[in-house]
Every structure is written in structure tokens, then in C-alpha cells.
């Protein structure tokens, strides 16, 4: 894993960071790299209210905010920025507003690496809009000033169209941090993680792979 100067992570929802890159970020943080996480919404329109339910539509934003704080603490993220956009409406935000939001953060932080979703291969409209905004912001920079852009993709066609990921991080040494971050998002993950020990014992490949490696693609401008 290459040593970075500063990493900027941009995702739309609380828990995106934990499922996608918590292990990767934990490894970078252990190496002394500062990480800034821009979370665009509080995920207040999330379908899950706990299992059994302990949240309501009214209380979910407050609950998910605290869950996010707990998750970034588990990973060790030093700089969390909650940007205040509304869940499930990121795709309807003005393109220039979103792009400028990312540009301002890049200008301030001067990251050597930015991580987001891969436009066209990240399924959810908020994911897609976020990825497009990050790509637009970096594309406007001169080539010699651009940070690297690593993108998370998980659509059914991503391997067929993008090929195998060129970035695969072995995160077994920090899988406890990733699992703690995932568990922190209790309202969304409690049912999924209720039997995680059994899943590991039964060698359920998809779940175990989440705790062993994280995959990304380098975006080519």
C-alpha cells in the first residue's frame, strides 16, 4: 500500500465508508496518513429502522448521526465532515454546487488520494451523483495537480466492463476495526451482523471476503 499525504473520502451515506473502505482507511491511518471523510447526508431515508425496530422516521437522522460518529471513531478517522444534504436527493442537487463542494475540500486539504464511488457502477442514485461530482471536480484540475482517484464499484456489470480491480487491499490485520465500524451502524446492520460468527464459521464466502479484502478501481481520466 502506497504511503499517502492525505486522503479525502466522499460518500453520500453513513455506512458507505464502513462497508466499502473501512479496512483500507484503518491501514492508512495506522501508517500515519490523515483521513478526511465528507459524508453528504445522514441517511435519514434509510429503509431499516433496526431489527427489532428501535428508530422512527423522526428519530432516524439523530440515530444515524451518532452511529456515524461511532463508526469513524472505530476506524480512527480524524476529520469527519457532515455536509447536510438530504438523503435520496443528491441526484437532484445542482451539479455546480456539488462539484464546488468537492473542489473546495480538495483545494483546502491537497489530498494525494480521493476515494468515492465509480460513476455508472455503484447502483444507488446518490452513489452515482456523488461519484460524478468527484470526477468532475478532479477533471477540472490540471493533470499534474490531480490526486489519484480510487473508486468503489459493485454493480452486476462492473467486472465485465471495468475488468478486475487494480487495487485489492488485504485488510485481515484490521478486520476487527472494519467489523466494529459496520456494527456501529446498528440501525442498518443489526440483522445482517446478528449471526456474523456463524457466517464466518460456515465459511460464507461473500461475508468473509468483506472482512479480508477491499477492492477498488483507479479512475482513468
Automatic annotation (TrEMBL):
GO MF: hydrolase activity, acting on carbon-nitrogen (but not peptide) bonds, in linear amides
Coiled coil: 179-206
Gene3D superfamilies: LmbE-like
A Pfam family reported for this protein in Swiss-Prot or TrEMBL: PIG-L
Superkingdom per UniProt: Bacteria
Names of the cofactor(s): Zn(2+)
Keywords on record: Coiled coil
Name of the protein this chain belongs to: Bacillithiol biosynthesis deacetylase BshB2
Amino acid at each position: 500500500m502506497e504511503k499517502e499525504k492525505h486522503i479525502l473520502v466522499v460518500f453520500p451515506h453513513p455506512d458507505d465508508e464502513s462497508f466499502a473502505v473501512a479496512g483500507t482507511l484503518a491501514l492508512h491511518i495506522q501508517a500515519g496518513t490523515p483521513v478526511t471523510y465528507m459524508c453528504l447526508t445522514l441517511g435519514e431515508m434509510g429503509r431499516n429502522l433496526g431489527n427489532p425496530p428501535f428508530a422512527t422516521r423522526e428519530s432516524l437522522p439523530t440515530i444515524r448521526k451518532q452511529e456515524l460518529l461511532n463508526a469513524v471513531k472505530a476506524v480512527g478517522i480524524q476529520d469527519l465532515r457532515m455536509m447536510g444534504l438530504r438523503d435520496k436527493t443528491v441526484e437532484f442537487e445542482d451539479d455546480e454546487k456539488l462539484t464546488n463542494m468537492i473542489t473546495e475540500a480538495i483545494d483546502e486539504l491537497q489530498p494525494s488520494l480521493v476515494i468515492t464511488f465509480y460513476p455508472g457502477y455503484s447502483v444507488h442514485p446518490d452513489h452515482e451523483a456523488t461519484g460524478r461530482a468527484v470526477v468532475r471536480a478532479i477533471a477540472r484540475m490540471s493533470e499534474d495537480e490531480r490526486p489519484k482517484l480510487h473508486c468503489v464499484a459493485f454493480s452486476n456489470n462492473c467486472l465485465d466492463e471495468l475488468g478486475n480491480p487494480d487495487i485489492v487491499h488485504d485488510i485481515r490485520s484490521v478486520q476487527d476495526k472494519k467489523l466494529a465500524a459496520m456494527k456501529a451502524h446498528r440501525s442498518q446492520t443489526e440483522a445482517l451482523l446478528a449471526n456474523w460468527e456463524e457466517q464466518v464459521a460456515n465459511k460464507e464466502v461473500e461475508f468473509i471476503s468483506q472482512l479480508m479484502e477491499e477492492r477498488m478501481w483507479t479512475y482513468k481520466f
